[in-house]
Amino acid sequence: MNKILTFHNDCRLNDRCAKYETCPMILVHKILSGKWKILILWYLSNDTLRFSELKRKLPGTTQKMLTNQLRSLEEDNLIFRKVYPVVPPKVEYGLTDIGKRIIPLLESMYSYGVEYSNTKN
């Protein structure tokens, strides 16, 4: 991994993050970066959803893009994928325990969006 990605010398909290191989902020950025990841997590914070339900909630995404974003979130252990042995196949996605821990962050982002919207008026 590139040196800049593993250790962030200019981190605002350098005295705290220096003990980690990767700056925690860089790690969170890596986990959440992706066009649809934050919204996927937001929608899954309420309930488990099927692929088609997520696709409906994200009309600007393609099936391939959504699949890639879901796989990435699954690899990072933020979501789980449950396949039911039925025909046609039924697949549901939901937050893992560690994924549920991101809900307060998402709620803070939502609140910031509300505050920001109010300053634009």
Overall description:
The protein is mainly alpha-helical and 121 residues long. 55% of the residues lie in helices and 12% in strands. It contains eight helices and three strands, in the order ααααβααββαα. Strands 1-3-2 form a three-stranded antiparallel β-sheet. The protein is globular, with a radius of gyration of 17 Å. The N terminus is likely disordered.
Shape, please?
Answer: globular
Strand content: 5-15%
Mean of residue pLDDT values: 89
Strand tally is 3
The level of helicity is: 55-70%
The secondary-structure element order is HHHHEHHEEHH
What assembly state would you assign to the polypeptide chains in this entry? single chain
Number of helices: 8
Radius of gyration: 17 Å
Give the uncertain stretches in residue-range form. Answer: 1-5
The secondary-structure class comes to mainly alpha
Largest sheet: 3 strands, antiparallel
Measured between the Cα atoms of the first and last residue, the distance is 43 Å
Strand order of the largest sheet: 1-3-2
In short, what is this structure?
The protein is mostly helical and 121 residues long.
Topology:
Blueprint: H1 3-6, H2 14-17, H3 24-32, H4 37-44, E1 49-50, H5 51-57, H6 63-75, E2 79-84, E3 90-95, H7 97-100, H8 103-120
Antiparallel strand pairs: 1-3, 2-3
